[in-house]
Amino acid sequence: MLETLDVHDGHRVLEIGTGTGYNAALLAHRLGDERVFSVDVGSDLVAAARRRLAAIGRRPQLAARDGIEGWPEHALYDRVIATCSVPRVPWPWAQQLTPGGKVLADLKVGIGAGNLVLLDRYDDRLEGRFTGRWAAFMGMRHDGDITPSRAAKTETSQRRVTTAPAQPWNTDREVWLLACLALPADLRYGYTLDPSTRTPRAAALSAPDGSWCEIDLTTADDGSRQLREGGPTPLWAQVEDAYQRWHQWGQPTWERFGLTTTADTHAIWLDDPHGELRWPL
Question: Could you tell me the pTM of the whole model?
Answer without folding.
Answer: 0.91
